[in-house]
Amino acid sequence: MATAYFAFQCPPQQGKEFVFETSDDEIIAHARRVLSGEEKDRTHVMGRIKKSPKPYNPDFDFHLDPATIRFFEVAIEVCDAEPQYVDDHLDEVGGAFLPGGHWCPWASALTREVKH
Protein backbone atom coordinates (compact mmCIF):
# COMPACT_ATOMS: atom_id res chain seq x y z
CA MET A 1 0.00 0.00 0.00
CA ALA A 2 1.23 3.45 -0.92
CA THR A 3 0.69 6.44 1.32
CA ALA A 4 -0.87 9.59 -0.10
CA TYR A 5 -1.46 13.04 1.35
CA PHE A 6 -4.31 15.38 0.47
CA ALA A 7 -5.08 18.96 1.47
CA PHE A 8 -8.39 20.67 2.01
CA GLN A 9 -9.72 24.07 3.00
CA CYS A 10 -13.05 25.12 4.45
CA PRO A 11 -14.53 27.98 2.44
CA PRO A 12 -15.41 30.73 2.92
CA GLN A 13 -12.40 30.80 5.26
CA GLN A 14 -9.26 31.00 3.20
CA GLY A 15 -5.70 30.45 4.26
CA LYS A 16 -4.23 27.39 5.84
CA GLU A 17 -4.79 24.02 4.27
CA PHE A 18 -5.38 20.99 6.46
CA VAL A 19 -3.43 17.94 5.27
CA PHE A 20 -4.33 14.34 5.93
CA GLU A 21 -2.59 11.05 5.27
CA THR A 22 -4.08 7.79 4.03
CA SER A 23 -2.81 4.42 2.87
CA ASP A 24 -6.27 3.11 2.00
CA ASP A 25 -6.34 2.45 -1.76
CA GLU A 26 -10.10 3.10 -1.97
CA ILE A 27 -9.82 6.42 -0.13
CA ILE A 28 -6.86 7.47 -2.31
CA ALA A 29 -8.79 6.64 -5.49
CA HIS A 30 -11.89 8.42 -4.18
CA ALA A 31 -9.87 11.56 -3.31
CA ARG A 32 -8.35 11.61 -6.77
CA ARG A 33 -11.85 11.32 -8.31
CA VAL A 34 -12.96 14.28 -6.18
CA LEU A 35 -9.98 16.35 -7.34
CA SER A 36 -10.60 15.45 -11.00
CA GLY A 37 -14.26 16.47 -10.73
CA GLU A 38 -15.49 12.95 -11.47
CA GLU A 39 -16.91 12.50 -7.93
CA LYS A 40 -19.49 15.18 -7.17
CA ASP A 41 -21.46 13.76 -4.23
CA ARG A 42 -19.25 12.46 -1.41
CA THR A 43 -16.66 15.23 -1.51
CA HIS A 44 -16.26 16.31 2.14
CA VAL A 45 -13.64 14.82 4.47
CA MET A 46 -14.27 13.26 7.88
CA GLY A 47 -12.26 11.30 10.42
CA ARG A 48 -11.25 10.99 14.06
CA ILE A 49 -8.97 13.61 15.57
CA LYS A 50 -5.64 12.68 17.12
CA LYS A 51 -4.30 15.38 19.43
CA SER A 52 -0.75 15.46 18.15
CA PRO A 53 0.95 17.34 15.31
CA LYS A 54 2.38 15.70 12.20
CA PRO A 55 5.18 17.04 9.99
CA TYR A 56 2.94 16.88 6.91
CA ASN A 57 0.35 19.15 8.61
CA PRO A 58 2.55 21.84 10.22
CA ASP A 59 -0.10 24.52 10.72
CA PHE A 60 -2.12 22.48 13.23
CA ASP A 61 -1.50 20.71 16.54
CA PHE A 62 -3.70 17.77 15.56
CA HIS A 63 -4.19 15.37 12.69
CA LEU A 64 -6.75 12.87 11.45
CA ASP A 65 -6.23 9.20 12.22
CA PRO A 66 -5.44 7.82 8.74
CA ALA A 67 -7.47 4.66 9.41
CA THR A 68 -10.64 6.73 9.98
CA ILE A 69 -10.65 8.95 6.86
CA ARG A 70 -13.91 8.85 4.93
CA PHE A 71 -15.78 11.07 2.47
CA PHE A 72 -19.36 12.18 2.99
CA GLU A 73 -22.15 14.15 1.35
CA VAL A 74 -24.04 15.23 4.51
CA ALA A 75 -23.36 14.70 8.21
CA ILE A 76 -24.77 15.66 11.59
CA GLU A 77 -24.00 19.12 12.94
CA VAL A 78 -22.30 17.91 16.12
CA CYS A 79 -19.11 17.03 14.21
CA ASP A 80 -18.83 20.22 12.13
CA ALA A 81 -16.12 22.80 12.90
CA GLU A 82 -13.54 24.88 11.06
CA PRO A 83 -9.93 23.58 11.29
CA GLN A 84 -8.60 26.66 13.10
CA TYR A 85 -11.47 26.54 15.61
CA VAL A 86 -10.65 22.89 16.33
CA ASP A 87 -6.99 23.79 16.83
CA ASP A 88 -7.90 26.70 19.14
CA HIS A 89 -10.17 24.44 21.25
CA LEU A 90 -8.19 21.20 21.05
CA ASP A 91 -8.39 20.63 24.79
CA GLU A 92 -12.21 20.43 24.48
CA VAL A 93 -12.26 17.87 21.63
CA GLY A 94 -13.80 14.57 22.62
CA GLY A 95 -16.21 15.99 25.20
CA ALA A 96 -19.26 18.06 24.33
CA PHE A 97 -17.19 19.54 21.48
CA LEU A 98 -16.71 16.95 18.73
CA PRO A 99 -17.80 13.95 20.84
CA GLY A 100 -15.51 10.96 20.45
CA GLY A 101 -13.11 13.13 18.45
CA HIS A 102 -15.21 12.70 15.30
CA TRP A 103 -14.71 15.62 12.92
CA CYS A 104 -16.69 16.27 9.75
CA PRO A 105 -16.11 19.82 8.49
CA TRP A 106 -19.12 20.40 6.24
CA ALA A 107 -17.37 22.98 4.10
CA SER A 108 -14.25 20.87 3.56
CA ALA A 109 -13.17 20.98 -0.06
CA LEU A 110 -10.13 19.09 -1.35
CA THR A 111 -7.62 21.45 -2.92
CA ARG A 112 -4.80 19.19 -4.04
CA GLU A 113 -2.78 16.03 -3.58
CA VAL A 114 0.32 16.86 -1.58
CA LYS A 115 3.58 15.41 -2.83
CA HIS A 116 5.43 14.44 0.36
TrEMBL record:
Transmembrane regions: none
InterPro entries found in the cross-reference section: BP74_N, cAMP-inducible_BP74-like
Residue span, BP74 N-terminal domain: 3-115
Pfam families documented for this protein: BP74_N
PANTHER family in alphabetical order: CALMODULIN-BINDING PROTEIN CAM-BP15-RELATED, CYCLIC AMP-INDUCIBLE PROTEIN BP74-RELATED
Protein name: Calmodulin
Organism of origin: Streptomyces prasinus
